[in-house]
Amino acid sequence: MTIGITGPGRKVPRQSAVVRLIVAAIVIGTCLILFALASDLLVGWLWFSSIGYLQVFWTTVGAEAVVFLAVWTTTAVILWLNGWLALRFARRQPTQPAAAPAQSAAGSVQPDLLALVRDQLPLPRLIAGGAALLALLVAAEEAGNWGVFLRFVYQVPYGADDPLYNKDIGFYLFSLPAYIVIRNWMMLTLVLSGLFAAAVYWLHGDIEYDVRHRSISPAAIAHGSALLGFLFAVKAWSYVLDRYLLLYGDNSVVVGASYTDVHVGLPALWLMIGISIIAALAAWANVRVRTYRLPAVAIVLVGVGMFVLSAVVPGFFRQFFVKPSELELERPYIEHNIALTRQAYNLDQIAAKPFAAEQKLTPEVLEANKATIENIRLWDWLPLSDTYAQLQEIRTYYKFHDLDVDRYWLDGSYQSVMLSARELRSSLLPPNAQTWVNRHVLFTHGNGAVMSPVTRKSAEGLPLFYLRDIPPVADVGPRIDEPRIYFGEQTDDYVIVKGSTPEFDYPKGKENAYAAYGGAGGIPIGGMAARMLFAYYFNDPNLILSNYITTDSRIMIRRNIQTRVSTIAPFLRLDHDPYLVVSGGRMFWMQDAYTTNSYFPYAEPAQGLDLNYIRNSVKVVVDAYNGTVDFYLVDSGDPIAATYQRIFPSLFKPFTTMPPDLRKHVRYPEDLFLIQARMYQAYHMEAADVFYNREDLWQFPRQPGGDGISMMTPYYIIMRLPGEPQAEFFLMLPMVPSRRDNMIAWLAARCDAPDYGKLIVYEFPKEKLVYGPFQIEARINQNTEISQQLTLWNQMGSRVIRGANLLAIPIENSILYISPLYLRAQQGHLPELKRVIAAYGEHVVMKETLAEALAALFTESGPAPVAPSRMEEAPLAGPTANQSRAALDRYNQAVERLKAGDWKGFGTQFDAMRELLEDMNRRPVDR
To answer: How far is the C-alpha of 726 from the C-alpha of 455, rounded, in Å?
Structure first.
């Protein structure tokens, strides 16, 4: 006989102790989250107050809070209700002693965890807490859709209807996105409710699923059927919305609703709506029947219906009925696609004009287009940025982030220039100087800018500086009275201004110059409460401990201009390239901002971007010294911008209130132009037949780049359009036929008032061959003289750098090609502009300057010289000798006129020389 001795049973934590631990953890976590949210809220409030956009802040925060609370409350109530109902209708299991073991098949003793949780924990409170926590996660995700609901509430009509349902397009831009967000939330909430209730039923044994036994109680079946019915009802509404989503389909022929969508897909959706309603009613009926068969049939009915009606039937219909007569059947839908895509990207506003592509350039024509010639850009941004860095960064902690192209009236002429701000990056200080004081108190701002003309160079091949040095010296460029840059493209760290010590201003010989900030930018940080707040926000105790902070000190945060603009208006999409403007002795940043949408019906989405509608409706100006931000509404006819103006009435200013000098520097943004140019490659074809066959598809020109072939990018240029009285600032890009290299057209956007924003495309005769950039590059590479010279330079320890773009310059009805050539020492970083390559028609030349290249080009383009005979090689005498001396004199005078930039005088002397040479050719030779 054996005597079994058992030890004391395992003690189970008392209910009150478990509850206290759970409550304590929840309270601590909630307090930490609330404290972090409160600090973010306070910093945001102080920052928005400092820049004058407090109304924008409260509107944004209020909308986000309303969406969060509405979603959290509704979701929590629904989840709690389902959990409570499950708890109420679940089977009551007999209470067992917690220490009673459950004997397994192997004889081991395992605790009944389900019984432990069910009997020892306060399930009603856990259900409420779990519902609140899950709802919190859902609400945190949905709160980011506050903009969708604000646009829905404040929407304005678009003013045009879609061609299928005849609904105002504003419905698709503003209402449909909100309905989709609500639908997705309802589906998610119902799925979570089912899982939440299933967990309660499983805990009570109403749902059992293991290898030996599977069962589900009638109460769980009834509850699940009710939720399934609601899910089918939401699915029916989802199919109603899917009717409108047909307008965004893409079958590779039509973007938008096609013939198949309208004649098969739309009726199929109506059938699916009916099937979903029947399935919902069947599921609700099962609340009384309580069998698994009825819900299973409903699920199979909806699943099979969706597969057959949404995939099989439309596929067969398109393959065997539509494709044999595709063009004829799809024609009206292709026309919708073309018209609405052109409307969505403003392509319908592009004015198409013929371009004769003649070969009639003469010195007189060049003189008439002197402003174009004098502004041909010979300095590419990459070699010029290296040159700026070597000559004008002054110290290692200064950096030129980007070079911008703009135009100014300087020295009595309209000139295209390149300029860049000299910003300070404290992270580039030597490692032993990377102290908190240096990074946040002393090295706080950049200084000045560099400006140079796009065409001119020094005798050494270096740029001529209109603005240079520290403090800025204006030789020809605009003066800069306030050169300090506290807000820019590279500034990211916070800085303290108006501290107890002056800030570093600029290096001055062996000493440094210092200055104190005198502006109104930044947030007051003199009080201890503000210092503690920002110390917590940046996790930096030095803000509390430092003696450099005084009662007058201010902290500058969000100093990167794009971060600054995006924080104020996160609903605007920003152009990648903000550019510097010098105006009235101060420096400003000009930032283009876009209103976009991805729900414009029948419009093709932009490749790689989540949009199929875009407008450059807003121009943003940021003061580089004070950090003030002004939003100017350029396109008041844009319904999205008009909606935002209703939401934020104090945010936008009329464009007419922008200072007049700043308005002169508004330019057409490059990102928008690229998007429009890419879409126009196909959507310049307005005839459905031509579009369907892709007969006249365009593409960007190819050009050699780096180690391979790249596509040409747009470039800014000052030129005079054919028939226009004066030169203007343009953004332009040539076009070539698909898979061909000859030029077919060029697209330009006007940047100057009063025609700002107008786009023009000049189309070449299709029966005439006009060399494209890649073909001109091939001719340059095949030119023996040029290739030999390039090879020689490369062998002499220099590196030859070609310009990034071979510039196609339209002059009257002709195209002139210009390409700069730079030399850089093999181990050096200072590129020098050494040659200019010019091409026109069949002729290619390379000379030291643009003027010499053009002179040589049009000398070669003149009448071919007559080959001399043997007898004519003897010295000339008599009248012929006098004429030859006169011709030489004319040539020398023409060269002098050319060096002076007098194209008219050059043409006069050149014509006189030609007349003398032709007369000599007709006369008998005097010996």
So the answer is: 19
